[in-house]
Structure formats: structure tokens, C-alpha cells
Amino acid sequence: MIPPIPPLAIDDASPPLGISPTDVSQFIRLDQCQRYLRLRLHERSAGQRFLRDYDVAPQSIPPILTRSGAAFEEAVEAGIAAAFPFVRFTAADRKEAGRDDDNAAVVQAARALRPGEVRVLGQPRLEARLGHWLIRGDVDLIRLERTLDGSLAILIADIKSSTSAKVEHRLQVAFYHEMLAAILADAGIAHDPIALAILYRGPAASDDPTAVPGDDLHLAQQRLDAQRLLGASTGLLETIADEAAYIGAVHDLVIGEHSTARRVLGTDFERIPFHLTYKCDGCLYNEFCMKQSAESDNLSLLPHLTEQDKSVLLREGITTVTELATLKDLRRKGTISIDGVVQEQTDLVPAPGQDARSRHLAATWPVGPRLDELVHRARRYRRWKGDAIEAIPWIPGKGYGSLPWSGPDQNPNLVRIFIDVQHDYLNDRLYMLGA
Predict the structure, then answer these.
(1) Cα 161 to Cα 278: distance, rounded to the nearest angstrom
(2) pLDDT tens for residues 33-73?
(3) Cα separation of 201 and 149, whole Å?
(4) What is the 3-class SS of the chain, one letter each residue?
(5) Using one digit for the tens of pLDDT, what is the confidence trace for 361-374?
């Protein structure tokens, strides 16, 4: 049984809850999985003990992705340091100085700038109280410029070793915008509107072997912007034009009174929807959800079941694979000869007491046209788990498979290899293959 994860109500008397821009960015990358957000917020407030109590561990990021991002960041920072005064903040510096964040250092850097000066800050840790939330995050780059007329121009940029700038990247810098704006406002420092940008690696050379570097004017301009504003000799700089929309999303997702995070926090954990997909491979809580799904006979265990299919079945009161498997009974109808091959004829009929539910589901989109297929899959799975339930080894009506048939009289020595691959979303490539 999973450890208790109680709902939390936020009010003026409650202490602020911790969250980071990276948490929300990951929430977006995982197709806005509310269960991930709920588990992440619970870990922020109660620690990782609930994972140990459930005998699971958080899933670590593959080292190849970490190394790829670190190498790109190092190359970018080297270019910046050669072009502008550059200060890089580290955890060791904070520990030695006895501080938890770099807010004061960022404020001091802004105040110390003289007209015409530029300074770039790398990895400063910001912490700000926004509404009922205490938000902490390390900003990749903050470019500070005191113009000749004395105004303060600020650019916040996030470094991503990816082929393109994504929605979750833009949302992450929007959080930094709100955090830095609050910190400077508390310090009484006036500034121009804060610009937001993503410094990303860009398309790999192998993505289009016929492409000539610089033939895309849009990418060429982004490369020039990276060199002009940051001195970066590698990467492309996308300046976010519709930053107001992303700042609004920050309030809708976290800061606002009716935000997604507040709603998820106040919902019973068992009622938070989730579904296992390939995206879960990159989630911290993959092992937690896989184990809980296996223990509870969750519908997500069925292959080829979509999230929409699952939501329809749950709405109709079918919450487990066993309940779906027993929705209909298997009726055998003798044999039939097809192209000289004798095959068994079968049919699915509503189980006793399930007539009305079966008819209703058969007319409900998108489950209706696939209902018998899903029941067959459920019966096959439960039989594999050891249940005393009849099942057939094929899915009627699914057409011909792409694999050649293998049997005692046809292709008896066929070798079938089943492959699992891992996707590097930073460089949009496959980096590991198992068979």
C-alpha cells in the first residue's frame, strides 16, 4: 500500500510551500501530468521518505543527458567570459559565505553598474516569495547593462542543449522573470522591462545534410544575437516575443489564487488522474507509479490504451483491468476454414448483469469501436497473471500483423528480436538500444 499523501489546503496562516521553475517545466514536458506535480509538491514539503517507505527510488536522469547539457553550458560560458565581465556563482561560494541564495549579490551587481557597463551573471540562485509560494531556482544567465542614459536593461536567458526552444523552456524563464522582478522591487531598483530568451544548441549538422550553415535567415539572426548580446560563439538565442503570455501562465499554473498547483494540492491523491506513457520514462516518479499500477491492477497496464480511453472507462466505473476483462464473456462458436486453414470462431457477449453497461460503452467515443479489442487485451493480461479466465492468443478484427507468421509448419526457425530504445530529447536522437 502506498504511504499516505494527504491533501493540503493553502491559506494566509499556512507557511509558504516550496517549488522551483524546473519543477513546473518538467510538469509541462510530461504533458502536464497532475500526478507528477502532486508528488513533486509532496516531496518538497515532506521529503523523500514516502518513496523509501514504498520501497522505490527516484529515477535519475541518464548521465549522457547530463553530460551533454554540461558540455554545452561550458562552451557557452567560455564565450561569454571572453566577451564580457562574467561572474559565475557556485554552491561552494554560497556555503563559504553562509548564505542560501544570491539575491543580495545580484542586487549589488545591478547597483554597481556604471553607464555603458555590461555584466553577465552565471547560475545565481534566486529565492522569492510569490503569493503563497517560496520559489527557488538557479538562473543560467542574467545580463545586466546600464545604458548611457542610466536605465537598467536586463536579459534573462536559459541555456538548453536542445535542437529547438520549447514551451517548457520559455515558461521556466518566465518564472525567473517574476522572481527577479520581485527581488529588485524589494530593493528599490528601477529597471526597464526584463527581456527573456533561450540560448539553445540549434539543429544538429546531421539533421539536414544538404543544408548550408547560415542559409536560414531566422537562425542566422539568432546566432548573431547570441554573439552580440552574450558573446556566445556557439548556440542560438531566441528572444521571447510573447513573454506576457508565459508570465500569465506562471500565475495560472502556480502563483494565482485559483492555480493548477493549488487545485492539485487540495485534491485527494487517489482522485488525481494519470496514465502511463512513454513520457514516464523520464519522470522522477516512474518507479512509484509503475509499482502502484501493478499492485492496484490499474488500467494503464493495458497496451495500446490511450489516456482518453482510460478516462472514459473510469467514468463508467471500470477502474481495473480485471473489471474490464470480466465485462464480457468469451463464447466459442466452433471452427471455420479460411484459405484452407481451420480457425476457431469466437465472440464476446456481455457478462451477466453487464448488458446495459456494455451497450452504453459500445456507443461511447472513443472506446466504443475498440471495446471488444480492449476486453480481449484485458482478458489476455489477466490470464497471463494467472487468473482462471479464458482468452485467445490474438485480437480479432485487428488485421494482419507486420511480423511473418511463425509455427511448426511455417517459418519454424524465425528469429524475432524485440527492441527497446531510449530517446535523447536534447539532441533529438536515439542514444541507447536494448534487445
Answers:
(1) 21
(2) 999 999 999 999 899 999 999 999 998 776 666 676 788 89
(3) 34
(4) CCCCCCCCCCCCCCCCEEECHHHHHHHHHCCCCHHHHHHHHHHHHHCCHHHHHCCCCCCCCCHHHHHHHHHHHHHHHHHHHHHCCEEECCHHHHHHHCCCCCHHHHHHHHHHCCCCCEEEEECCEEEEEECCEEEEEECCEEEEEECCCCCEEEEEEEEECCCCCCHHHHHHHHHHHHHHHHHHHHCCCCCCCCEEEEEECCCCHHHCCCCCCCCCHHHHHHHHHHHHHHCCCCCEEEECCCHHHHHHHHHHHHHCCCCHHHHHHCCCHHHCCCCCCHHHHHCCCHHHHHHHHHHHCEHHHCCCCCHHHHHHHHHCCCCEHHHHHCCEEEEEEEEEEECCEEEEEEEEEECCCCHHHHHHHHCCCCCHHHHHHHHHHHHHHHHHCCCCCCCCCCCCCCCCCCCCCCECCECCCCCCCCCEEEEECCCCEEEEEEC
(5) 999 999 999 999 99
Residue identified by cell 507528477 is 36
Amino acid at 255: I
Amino acid letter at 426? L
Rounded to whole angstroms, the Cα distance separating 408 from 171 reads 57
Q: Which three cell numbers stand for residue 29?
A: 514536458
